[in-house]
Amino acid sequence: MGELLRLEHVSKQYPGVLALDDVSLTLEPGEVHVLFGENGAGKSTLISMVAGVMPPSNGQLIFNGEPVRFNSVYDARLNGISAVFQEFSLVESLTVGENLLLGDEPTNWRFIDQKTSQELVEKELEKFDFDLSPTQVVGQLSRAGQQMVEIAKALRSDVSVLILDEPTASLTEKETEQLFELVDELKAKGVGIFYITHRMAEIHRIADRISVLRDGKHIGTVNAEEVTDDELVEMMTGRVISQLYPDIPCNRRETVLQVSELQTSDGTVQSATFSVAEGEVVGFAGLVGCGKSEALRACFGIETVESGQVTFYGENVTGFSPREMLEMGMFYNSRDRKEEGLMMVRSGRENIGLASLDTPPFKASGSLVNRRHEKDIAERLASRLRLYPMDTERDVSQFSGGNQQKVLLAKCLTRGVSLYIFDEPTVGVDVATRSEIYAFIGELCEQGAAVVIISSDLPEILNLTHRAYVMHEGEIKAHFTGDDITEQNILGHFFHREETESAAS
Question: Which of 67, 281, 310, 388 sees the fewest Cβ atoms within 10 Å?
Fold first, then answer.
């Protein structure tokens, strides 16, 4: 079969930045072509051009043997190219069905044909076996649910090229496998798929070819079966990363956080009892929606506690506000940096200092901020975390996802903290940046801090934690220490025992 899509010497120039530099590569029918590279390497720019978000500054796209220039995402979709981006394009106030048909509703004279609309939506949702109702309001869905709506929306029309940008970041293991089965079906139909991921396991599962980008340049394209993880990482970074996970010594001392029979008002956490001490890394594992995030968010005062007790260094802090917990020395780093962690339209400097404006040396006289100290501290922390580009005056929205995460991490270093809680600290982050974040977490622990990692990425739990709690449907099902933190032990408690036995039979 011939080429489906060819990019010929494509470049994209922004003011002061060459985001994509003379890139040439192809997509064939029925293949999954993974785009691999560090955050800021040019992957998002490339797929945005293919999807019609913006045209290239130089070069051209050849689609089905003909030069094309798409004027919009809608134009690209009319030609059979659909994309599912990290940033969703859903209208949260509308239902699942209304979002699926938005802009393409069947009409009866001048009015929307409700009966035909309902039939179309039900037919579309049957294709995917997703746990979605046409009448659910999208804004009330979890991020995983919204991700499934985006995927269903992208596949409504006849698709020749599908673009998936980190599509599993919010999905459970079951939903991820459903997506991979769908990808296999699309491949069998001749659909070409551009797929962006930082997860090696996903590459091994679905990739046919891998194109590596670095600093906007195309480093090379390799067959997935013929390349090792180390070779990919070296192509991506230009250097060898000898050890992804640091060896973090455990020096468990005084108990910082003690939680007894915790239950949240919405029922997402039920009778949870756990503890965290200085000098250790404690992991919270489980499927998306199991309550692992909500348990720690309740300790920090974000979720409402219905019953139970939270003590911090022996003091009862149950029901304290996030401000009060921050002042006591607990810091929660949100899993959703765009909605909760960062102000996207403000500078890196302002974001880094945001949690400490009321403390010296940030605070000047009255309610004023000492801008010189704010700038000096932000630049020092940005340098420590290797922010790229090293420009703390740049709006956070202009940084790549991995560098936005570094700004988020820098925030917790601006004041005295005894307990650091990292909720999904490496979502959407490339391998090199992951290595830096893991080393950063290790340093905090070695300096005597208490650290919690909440993660859906099992290797993080297996390789970084000294103790691990496993949650399922709001309850802590298991607690493992040291050598007992194994994949078999952890996964064995991801599902309810009855579900596991049913699956086995």
Answer: 67
Residues 235 and 263 in one domain: no
Residue recorded with tokens 């959703």: 336
Contact 32, 183 (CB under 8 A): yes
Q: How many domains does the chain have?
A: 3
Q: Both 287 and 426 in a single domain?
A: yes
Domain shared by 270 and 374, yes or no: no
Neighbours of 45 (CB within 10 A): 22
Please indicate, yes or no, whether residues 139 and 206 belong to a single structural domain of this protein.
yes
Q: Is the dihedral of CA 385, 389, 390, 395 positive or negative?
A: negative
DSSP string, 375-444: HHHHHHHHHHTT-SS--TTSBGGGS-HHHHHHHHHHHTTSS--SEEEEESTTTT--HHHHHHHHHHHHHH
What does residue 233 show for φ and ψ, rounded to 5 degrees? -65, -40
Q: With cut-offs at 50, 70 and 90, classify the pLDDT of residue 50.
A: very high
Is there a single domain that holds both residue 461 and residue 403?
Answer: no
Burial bucket for residue 29 (CB in 10 Å: 0-12, 13-18, 19+) = middle
CA 150 to CA 384: how far, in whole Å?
37
**The domain containing residue 99 runs over which residues?**
5-241
Highest mean pLDDT among 113-122, 149-158, 378-387: 378-387
Residues 453 and 370 grouped into a single domain: no
CATH number at residue 451: 3.40.50.300
Q: 274 pairs with which residues across the strands?
A: 259
Give every strand in the sheet of 5-14, ordered side by side.
Answer: 17-27, 5-14, 58-63, 66-68
Confidence (pTM)? 0.69
**H or E element in which residue 101 lies:** helix 96-101
